[in-house]
Design a protein that fits this description.
This protein has a domain at 28-84. 53% of the residues lie in helices and 0% in strands. It has helices at 28-43, 45-53, 63-84. The two termini are 25 Å apart.
Length: 89
C-alpha cells in the first residue's frame, strides 16, 4: 500500500485518540464529577506509565478543552469525508 506522500499528500498527521463523552443534556455537576474522576485516573503515575508503555500519550484535559479538540477534528476531517462521499452505515 502506498504511503500518503507517495500518493501526493504531504504533511499528513493522523493519530487515533480515545475520549469519554456524555449526552449533551447531562447535568454539569455530573460532567464535572466524571471529568475529575477520569483525570485522577489518567494522571495516576501507574496508569499514566502503562499508557506510555503502550505507546499512548495520556492527556487529562477539561470537558471544554476536549469539546474544542473534537470540534477541531471534525473541521479537519469533514472536507475529506465529504469529498469521498463517506457516510455512516
Amino acid at each position: 500500500m502506498p504511503t500518503a506522500v507517495e500518493q501526493g499528500v504531504a504533511d499528513v498527521v493522523v493519530y487515533p485518540w480515545v475520549g469519554l463523552a456524555a449526552p449533551q443534556a447531562t447535568p454539569k455537576d455530573i460532567v464535572a464529577r466524571l471529568s475529575s474522576e477520569v483525570r485522577a485516573i489518567v494522571t495516576d503515575a501507574e496508569i499514566a506509565n502503562r499508557f506510555i508503555s503502550l505507546g499512548m500519550e495520556p492527556i487529562a484535559n477539561t470537558p471544554d478543552a476536549f469539546a474544542l479538540f473534537i470540534d477541531g477534528e471534525a473541521k479537519r476531517w469533514q472536507p475529506l469525508i465529504k469529498s469521498l462521499g463517506i457516510s455512516l452505515q
